# Entry
Amino acid sequence: MRLRLLLLCCLTMIPGMLLAAALPPVLPDSSRNSYVHSEMNRLSRSDVLKELKRKLERGQSVRIIHLGDSHVQADMMTRVVRRGLQERYGNAGRGLVFAYQLAGTNAPSDIESFSSIKWSATRLMKQTPPMTCGICGYVVSTDSLNADLAIGVKQARAKGEFFDRVRIFASGGGRANLRVSADDALTVTLSEDELAGRRSVDLPVPTDRVYLDKSGEVPGFAFYGISFEKKEVPGIIYDAIGVNGADYAAYVGSELFWQQIGTLGAGAYVVALGTNEAQNQQLNFDLFADQVRTMVRKLKQVSPGAVVILSTPPPSYYRRTQVNPLLETIADTIVRVADEEGVVSWDLFHAANAAEGASEWQKFGLFRPDKVHYSRAGYELQGEMMLDLFMRQLGD
# Structure
């Protein structure tokens, strides 16, 4: 009997022991300064968001577009910023999303898409005509006469993510309809301007997903993205546009992206690139600076008056063996170009304690095994750092 009880106690202890062994070390508050340099976590200019603050105080909506690479595509960091701002200032909509599942790539955890047909897909770094990427840095397309896709927000009721206005970015011949249910009861026939994103579409009822159908005698249809918005709810829309493998050159050279991005009326942009450039140890820094400068000037051209914030990339490793030696120069270049172009910089590289801090981020389980991408906890911490910047600028 005593032996049986001893065995039972051991069996009940083992799962807890295994779980404890699998978890990364707990992050004590006292260690935070080893991987976050709080004094460096600031924007280069103060009061840059004062116009956005005035709009929010007047009960208007403000749109912020966060552009980036794979650090952004999964929406782990940006989700923290979005939720924090919307909890304080109001949720004006989930914002811009894409049919990532149809493209065969990773998606934000709250977005899903379906279709009855197979689509071709490409992204900024691999686009070749006639497949060109649009506002989300991706495209899914088909040569079929008829096409359909559904896209929506998971668990929208619990998250308050119902929407009643959309802006669609697509192209193709024939007739396109938008439905807000699986049957034909609530259908909107889209005009050419509505299909191309030049005009938003008000839905007959709030919904958590929409169904897009294309039919007719003209083959071909391409889908670039859709924005979920709320008609009568002021507040924040925080878009996350992230593309795996993207760099400044990929965004700068995408003509359709620039044609579409200006239609959203953003009040601010956050540009978070540089990690992929750092994988090229022969990087031409003069050319890189020119690409950063071109990005800034294009944003100013399509969105006059919008605030532009250039984020430096966070610390990471090169081939998992050493802290990437190019990142410091990349960060310094981005900060310099921002200053020369009269825009704002957020030096995340140094706010994360630069090369010295990388080992601490690794020690506390904040990197993924490739030591370029971060764990969910790592991205969420960076999101908290950015949210703190916005709250301080907006007066909280």
